[in-house]
Amino acid sequence: MSTKLPKVPVVIVGMGWAGGIIASELTKAGLKVVGLERGKARSTQDYSMGHDELRFQHRTELMQDLSKETITSRNNSKTRALPMRHYGTFIVGDGIGGAGSHWNGQTYRFLPYDFEIKTLTEKRYGKNKIKKGYTVQDWGMTYDELEPYYDTFEKMAGISGETVELYGKRSNPYPTGPMLKTPIMEEFEKATKKLGYKPYILPSGNLSENYTNPDGISRSACQYCAYCENFGCEYGAKADPVVTVIPVAKQTGNLDLRTHSNVTKIVNDGQKATGVIYVNTLTGEEFEQPAEVVVIASYVFNNVRLLLNSNLGKPYDPQTGAGAVGKNYAYQISAGGSTLFFDNKEFNLYGGAGALGIEIAEFTGDNFDHTNENFIHGAGIRTTQYGDRPIAVNRVPNGTASWGSEFKKQSIKYANSTFPVKIQGASLPHQQNYLDLDPTYKDAYGMPLLRMTYDYTEQDKEMVKYMSKVTRNIAENIGPDHIETSEEQAPFNVNKDTNTHNTGGVIMGADPQTSAVNSYLQMWDAENVFVAGASAFPHNSCFNPTGTLGALSYRAAEGIIRYMKDGGSLV
């Protein structure tokens, strides 16, 4: 039996980037907000002198406990899905800050092309360019409409970067300059310029200089210690909800932040929500928190699962195409890169930062002609220097034994003498890639797990073949002693694939028949429910999703404030 609590204006489920931004904006506007986070509280003090690879990277201390809740995965609907038992592909954050605490910090904007991808593709190449089965659709808004919110997010987070000609127009430059250029980045820069490309330093949530944002939050510059991905930043140099938006919300006195609070259900009548049910994970007590507005701002998988377990919104049916909750799950493409080995040249590869790198824009989006290609969209081609680690990184040439004296010899030889020219490609939705509830497996509370049905498509495979030639050409112009290029896309493997960017499942759009939320992330089927996060993306671009997630969260906050005043649909 749930203990019913007093009603509040707004309850937010999940206190990562999306929840933190929305909490900050609502509380600054004077609204009382309850923030529910199933994990524990964290601060920079928790990471002080905590450069512990075993603890954070391999034992995944900042991640969701897979023994209590996970996802099930299968490559197609004809096979049985099995639970993901250890972290390989996905690293789902847990605790205040969520994935915003353990992310690397790469902070791109999506392209103008992304937001009108169906319209612009058909205009340039004709209606047959998008093949049958690909559920590609426009987002229900344009880049120009979202640009002011991108600007707000970048100023709040102190994003470091430089303007790129081939991307959308900016109202302002990045608030801080680009990060330092290392020797491997210089090698990439020299080779790509020789080929006629225009390389640029990656936009970074790792501060290139000391910075004070518009909310008065001051943070120090990055130390290039290399402990970003899977780690929290002890300096606060990496943009993180814990050191940016959440302190602002707390300072207003309008945020009631409750940790160890796992939301299991949205209470609703099918048209409106009245609140949420959550369990105190320490005591097992169950509570009902009534609210005028419910904001779902958890990880992609958790957003979809919570809606499906609450019977809120229409579940997607891959056979008919009807329904939108679970539709257009997308990943990203990372095969097609080249690895460079040097016999007589060394670099300092154990220093770095999560967003330290250099990229070319010429193969992103529709920046190149796809007329004769069997795919659309594209990939960022880059080299990065996150900082290697002794346990995780042992790059050796193909054919080397995986253990023994030869493995040790080659590991030592190439410890500082290899780096990648890699791709990050867009992932377009397909009618057979989707999310639903697993009919067999349940979590620790008896709720069905989320089931992911996903595999790479022909579009993905064609992109990999194309981009592998580009990375090989760049690698050859750098001039290493050995090059290994990944030319084929293998089937998706949830335990081995390395990209961590998941999108879709509660997608936005202009049509309630083909989308779950509008451009303010307000549900079509329940006007007082807002679903924030990368679950709103109708497809995944070739860029990291956080910048777009942040921009949409600021827009959602604006919409919630309007809704609290006037009610009704916002579009």
Can you characterise this structure?
- It contains twelve helices and 22 strands.
- It is α/β, with parallel strands linked by helices and 571 residues long.
- It has one domain (3-566): FAD/NAD(P)-binding domain (3-Layer(bba) Sandwich), CATH 3.50.50.
- The radius of gyration is 23 Å and the shape is globular.
- The model has no long low-confidence stretch (mean pLDDT 96).
- Belongs to the GMC oxidoreductase family.
- Residues 220-329 form the Glucose-methanol-choline oxidoreductase N-terminal domain.
- Its EC number is 1.1.99.3.
Under CATH at level 1, the class stands as: Alpha Beta
Task: Give the number of helices.
Answer: 12
Report the principal-axis shape: globular
C-alpha end-to-end distance: 38 Å
How many domains make up the coordinates?
1
Radius of gyration, CA atoms, in whole angstroms:
23 Å
Q: Which strand-content bin applies to the residues? A: 15-25%
Average pLDDT confidence is 96
Helix content: 10-25%
User: The biggest beta sheet, please?
Assistant: 8 strands, mixed
Q: Please identify, by name, the CATH architecture.
A: 3-Layer(bba) Sandwich
Structural class: alpha/beta
Q: Number of DSSP strands?
A: 22
Give the name of the CATH superfamily. Answer: FAD/NAD(P)-binding domain
**Spans of 5+ residues with little confidence (pLDDT < 50)?**
none
CATH fold category name: FAD/NAD(P)-binding domain
